[in-house]
Amino acid sequence: MTPFLQENKAYSSALKPFAWGPPPVAVTEPLRNKKAPSATYVLLCLLVTSLALNVILSYVLLYELQRSTPSASSTSASRNAGVAIGAFYSHNASSIYIVGVVSEGDYAYRGVAMTLQGALIEGEGKVYVSTTPKIGIELQEAAETAFKAAQRFTKVDASRLDLLLSVIGSESIYVVDGPSAGAAVAVLASSLLLNRSIRSDVVITGTIDELGNIGQVGGIVYKAEAAAKAGAKIFLVPLGQRTDVVYVAVEKRVGPLIYIRYYPQLVDVEEYLRGKGYDVEVVEVSTLREAFDYFTGA
After folding, report:
1. 247, pLDDT greater than 50
2. Partners of residue 113 on adjacent β-strands
3. Quick count: other Cβ atoms within 10 Å of Cβ 93?
4. Of the given ranges (69-83, 144-158, 194-208, 277-291), which has the lowest mean pLDDT?
5. Which domains does the chain have, with CATH numbers?
6. Catalytic residue list
7. Which of 1, 84, 120, 135 could link 131 by a cystine bridge, Cβ 3.0 to 4.6 Å?
8. % the chain with pLDDT above 70
9. Whole-model pTM above 0.70?
10. What does the DSSP assignment read for 9-37?
11. pLDDT in tens, 4-18
12. What is the pLDDT of residues 267-287, one digit of tens each?
């Protein structure tokens, strides 16, 4: 072989690794010998993970059970008040009718009856109000005051309870006097705190303050008629409101035109209902205690 060929052969050998692609990757011995995890190992990992999740869920459930169980101090305090705390945590719920007034134009009003459902759950002494369907009623502030009045009346500390209220109507309406349902909320809350049943044929209207005093409201006649249609046998009204004013339409024809004027007329509510064909006793009450006695038959 000539020196020229020898030189070119050496040069060609030096370039050979690069002429056919990148150099081979060195594989260490441990990598060659590494095996895929066995089925036993995979099952063991899944078992450990499952056990860990079960432990976590058990702690979560235990925590929730402890939250829903009254402490010894709250049980003792409730016994001193004469009320079994267990009633609070047994889905204790009740309902009562509330009545309101809907405006339908100048001097045109009508009464509406709605169902107010209530329940007590563990909480922080708050009141939550919902409506079905959407009903325009300003009840939140009145309900909070009523809940305080109920606690004062029943002598039950509800600082660790929440009052859930749900107003259920037959239509979407705007009620013009939500605060007048305060007395009804107080009666309902009192029945829940004392775990007492209340009559469904007794309806009340009136505001309430924290001391349990029932205040006057408007639209008594329209509310009374709505209560009567809902099946009320006794309609409780604030002191001094057994009589109410209704507006009577009087037509006057002047040539081809007809003018309608509305004149106020004072009526006795019970007699007004009797004239409409309803047999309802209208009773004046001034305090939550008086009202509660009618609802419980005491």
Report:
1. yes
2. 99
3. 14
4. 69-83
5. 87-296 (3.30.230.10)
6. 180, 223
7. 135
8. 68
9. no
10. HHHHHHHHHHHTSSPPPP--HHHHH--PP
11. 445 454 444 444 444
12. 999 999 999 999 999 999 999
How many helices (H) and strands (E) the chain has is answered by: 9, 11
* DSSP-assigned letters across all residues of 97-111: EEEEEEE-STT-EEE
166 Cα distance to chain centroid: 5
- Exposed, middle or buried by CB within 10 Å (0-12, 13-18, 19+), for 284? middle
Region of 272 on the Ramachandran plot (φ > 0 left; ψ -120 to 50 alpha; else beta): alpha
Q: Is 168 exposed, middle or buried (0-12, 13-18, 19+ CB in 10 A)?
A: middle
pLDDT for residue 133: 73
Distance CA(151)–CA(190), nearest Å, equals 7
Give dist(CA 290, CA 298) in Å, integer. 10
DSSP per-residue letters across 174-219: B-S-GGGGHHHHHHHHHHHHHT----TTEEE--EE-TT-BEE--S-
Give φ, ψ of 117 to 5 degrees: -100, 145
